Amino acid sequence: MINVPVHPCGGQPAEGSVMKRFSEVVDAADELSVDEQETLIAILRRRVAERQRAALVREAAEARAEHRRGESKPASASDIMAEIRVEP
Questions:
Q1: Residue 46: which region, alpha, beta or left (left: phi > 0; alpha: psi -120 to 50)?
Q2: CB-CB contact of 27 with 36 (8 Å)
Q3: HSE (side-chain half, CA atoms, 13 Å) at 13
Q4: Taking every pair of C-alpha atoms in the chain, what is the biggest distance, in angstroms?
Q5: Quick one: DSSP state of residue 18?
Q6: Going by C-beta distance under 8 Å and a sequence separation of 6 or more, which residues neighbour residue 83?
Q7: Is the distance from CB of 69 to CB of 24 less than 8 angstroms?
Q8: Would you say 8 and 18 are in contact if contact means Cβ atoms under 8 Å apart?
Q9: C-alpha span between 76 and 54 (Å, rounded)
Q10: Which of 40, 42, 23 is closest to 32 using CA atoms?
C-alpha cells in the first residue's frame, strides 16, 4: 500500500517526491475499471472524513483542556465571527 497524503503538499517528504508519488497513484487509478475507481473514491472519501472527525475530536479535547485551565473566555457569536474574519 502506498502512503500518500490527502494533499500533495502535506508536509511529508520533499515536495518533488510527494508529487511524483501522487502522480504515480493517479496514473495507477487510471488503470482501474470504473467500478474499482468508484470504490477507491468511496474509500478515500471515508478516510478523509475519518481524519476530519479525528481532528475535530482533538480540537474539542484541546478546547476543553484550555477551559479547565482557565485559558478560555466567554465570547458572543459576533465576537467569534469577528475573530474568524481577521484570521488569514
A1: alpha
A2: no
A3: 9
A4: 55
A5: H
A6: 75
A7: no
A8: yes
A9: 26
A10: 40
Rounded Cα gap, residues 28 and 8, in angstroms? 16
Rg (the chain; Cα; Å): 19
Cell numbers that stand for 86 in this block: 481577521
pTM summary value: 0.61
- Tell me which amino acid residue 3 is: N
* pLDDT tens digits for range 15-67: 789 899 999 999 999 999 999 999 999 999 999 999 999 999 999 999 999 99
Which amino acid, one-letter code, is at 79? Answer: D
End-to-end Cα, the chain, rounded Å = 36
How far apart CA 35 and CA 24 sit, in angstroms, is 20
Give the residue from 68, 63, 65 showing the smallest Cα distance to 80: 63
Contacts of 48 (CB under 8 A, 6+ apart): 6
